[in-house]
Write a structure and sequence with these properties.
Number of strands: 18
Largest sheet: 5 strands, parallel
Bound molecules: adenosine-5'-triphosphate, magnesium ion
Strand content: 15-25%
CATH class of the largest domain: Alpha Beta
Length: about 450
């Protein structure tokens, strides 16, 4: 059970928080002043600190500075009056993770607490990872630290140097082509050609002519002799992409090349010897296709001597932050942006998204965010809208932009978002914001909302 330390000098408020958080399944420790925090932490570990800013002996700000000075890394969520959001922002610059305003919206608080724990888990993993970095972390430009990817790297290291036929299976955008390239570039054939054919893009006859070549006059339009991709790949690797989309007739011809190492061009009778290593990929389930009779079993056995399975990105969320970092560096450099990293909430959104387009979609999203980002951190604002829940504004952390969002901007945006949430109801909005209705009316007028 996660343990939360509530530090607040208002005992009624403390109890209210405690009751709600206990109900949400957390264990609570209490303190009524900032100067008690360090002694408590020394005595017992806690997982998160909920810290009021105004207290009698030692305020929250001072407590945060002291804790960070002493090297404590516990995540801290600050509680502050709406009128002093400014100090919450300052607290965050000293290392608080997030803040809530009074009167505390319990649902929002619970969400922030669980987000803080999600983020902690990510951070710890990341640290663990850094320690292991260099060990077995990537395969050149192929990134992944999930168990699934570690297995892929092992297989790659093992079979790349050999001539074994490899079958790569995975959804669109999971990295099939990247792996195929790595197999070639880490083999003894690396100085030979790496030739790719997309079997889904061509009709049967065209595909066969593409693969095996043709003699002059083999069909209408074949006005000269042409070598196929198998011949072009001689001494190197041929990558057959989307092999599940190949007709049974073409499958039979491929099988023959694999078995005999020779082929005939279309319309030709002489045999051509080829020395080619084959790597195939598909997003289809060839096993099922074999059962249905739409894929030859003998070819399937030949191809899948070494199978490599690339799971969808949503099944290896551990890879998301490292991939995001990797693409941030790549596109930061490319677009000459000095972006240091991701806001915790942006990372959490990335980790929660379903990624139907897998790594390609992640790569595109980060490239776009890099271009849009004006600050030092990628925030939820720069992520594609489908990744950000509709009610997101109501729980969003303040946007700290060194590019110069002023406090007034933030106040205006917060008021606007709150009014949106209450459907324009001002009394309700004033209550949520913790200010008098008249104050809200004044501010609406001032900002021209
Ligand atoms: N593990 C990874 N590390 C770094 N980049 C990756 C990784 N996997 C994929 N990518 C990148 O994601 C993009 C998509 O990968 P790739 O083209 O290999 O996918 P694919 O499975 O062949 O997709 P499709 O089925 O749509 O052809 C590429 O830009 C690739 O460099
Ligand atoms: Mg591909």
């Amino acid at each position: 059970m996660k343990k939360i330390l509530i530090v607040d000098d208002d005992s009624a408020h403390r109890t209210m928080l405690k009751v709600n958080l206990v109900e949400a399944g957390y264990e609570i420790v209490e303190a009524d002043d900032g100067d008690l925090v360090l002694p408590i932490l020394v005595e017992q570990p806690v997982d998160l600190i909920l810290l009021d800013l105004k207290m009698v002996r030692m305020g929250g700000m001072e407590a945060i500075k002291l804790l960070r000075e002493k090297g404590r890394v516990e995540p801290i969520i600050v509680i502050t009056a709406f009128s002093s959001v400014e100090s919450a922002v300052e607290a965050m610059s000293y290392g608080a993770m997030d803040y809530v305003t009074k009167p505390v919206d319990i649902e929002a608080l619970k969400l922030k607490v669980s987000q803080a724990f999600d983020f902690e888990a990510l951070r710890e993993e990341n640290e663990e990872l850094r320690k292991r970095l260099g060990e077995h972390f990537d395969f050149g430009n192929i990134i992944g630290r999930s168990a699934a990817m570690q297995k892929v790297f092992e297989t790659l290291a093992l079979v790349a140097p050999s001539d074994a036929t490899v079958l790569i299976n995975g959804e669109s955008g999971t990295g099939k082509e990247l792996i195929a390239g790595a197999l070639h570039h880490n083999s003894s054939r690396k100085n030979g050609p790496f030739i790719k054919v997309n079997c889904a893009a061509l009709h049967e006859n065209l595909l066969e002519s593409e693969l095996f070549g043709h003699e002059r006059g083999a069909f209408t339009g074949a006005d000269s002799r042409r070598s196929g991709r198998f011949e072009l790949a001689n001494g190197g690797t041929l990558f057959l992409d989307e092999i599940g989309d190949m007709s049974l007739q073409t499958q039979a011809k491929i099988l023959r090349v694999l078995q005999e190492g020779e082929l005939e061009r279309l319309g030709g009778s002489s045999t051509v010897k080829v020395d080619v290593r084959l790597v195939a990929a598909t997003h289809k389930n060839l096993d099922n296709m074999v059962k249905e009779g739409s894929f030859r079993q003998d070819l399937f056995f030949r191809l899948s001597v070494v199978p490599i399975e690339l799971p969808p990105l949503k099944e290896r969320t551990e890879d998301i932050p490292v991939l995001a970092d990797f693409f941030l560096q790549r596109y930061g450099k490319k677009n000459k942006k000095d972006i240091k990293g991701f806001h915790p909430q942006a990372l959490i959104l990335l980790a929660r998204y379903s990624w139907p387009g897998n790594i390609r979609e992640l790569e595109n999203s980060i490239e776009r965010a890099t271009i849009l980002c004006l600050g030092e951190q990628i925030t939820p604002k720069e992520l594609p809208p489908q990744m950000v829940p509709e009610d997101y504004q109501t729980v969003a952390a303040p946007i700290i932009s060194p590019g110069g969002l002023t406090l007034k901007d933030m106040e205006r945006e917060t008021i606007r978002a709150t009014l949106e949430r209450t459907g324009g109801n001002k009394s309700q909005a004033a209550k949520l914001l913790g200010i008098a209705r008249q104050t809200l009316l004044n501010k609406i007028k001032e900002y021209g909302i």
